[in-house]
Write the structure tokens for this entry.
Amino acid sequence: MSSVSGELPSGDNWVFEPKWDGMRVIVAVTDGVASAVSRTGKDALISFPELLAIAEIHDNVTFDAELVAFDDSDGSGVDGSHSFGRLQQRFGVTWPLDVAARAAQIPVVVVIFDLLMLDGHEIWRLPFAARRAALEDLIPDDSDSWMLSPSLVGDGETQLVEARAAGMEGIMAKRLDRAYEPGRRSDAWRKIKIRHAQEFVVCGWLPGTGSREDTIGSLVLGCHRDSVLTWVGNVGTGFTDADLRQWRDDLLASEVDEPAFSSTVQVALRTARWVSPEHVVQVAYAEWTSDGHLRQPSLLGRRLDVQPADVTCTE
């Protein structure tokens, strides 16, 4: 079951939970042995052996859950925030010794948010209110390996404010009276995303392909870190057809031979065409990655009221 994006609903028939920015998994325990698959059907145990601990909860059960890597950026312990970029460092690691080393460095927690099967009974057919009550009865206290996702009936506005203050991706709204709907998108679950936004300097562009071959593919973005203009990623979504044509005309008129970045640009920009850093745009994004780039950027529009020299990185 997947969610649809939508506006924040109201009323006592909705429950609100954090939108975890991690890796979705279905975790099953059969006769005391745990298994786990990702949304793409891949075995998640290979890279995340921590999932085996779920067998301690119950011998025959199936959960819908999220693998989350909580932050410990200052070395003082988990501070409650979490990072998809941190979790990504666990992806693709399969050699047992490497997996163990990476797990010690970047532990993950299984955040459980739904109950699908219990002792052979199809709990997923029950309304969410009944599933949640059964889940709360079943899950013992949170451990180093798992936690029960917080849930609050009504008052989505407060949840959204708290999620924004915590720097989270958003919240989930779920209908209390609806069954779990496997294998399909459902309006019974709504994803209300929180997007960050700020200004960035356009420092170049990448040629388009396919339907965009006559315009641009993406804008190369930068902002100032310690007064140095630095590449932070490219934005290729949020354009109208008219925007693409206008941008191409404007950028062709301000082309230069060398990038404005003082540091060596990555191989990913080898086909970029550089422009004078005179255009400023407003861009929405999910978060900053650990290497200082934008995740899921989308163009909001131009900022004619902002000087390029005043654009600083905010991560």
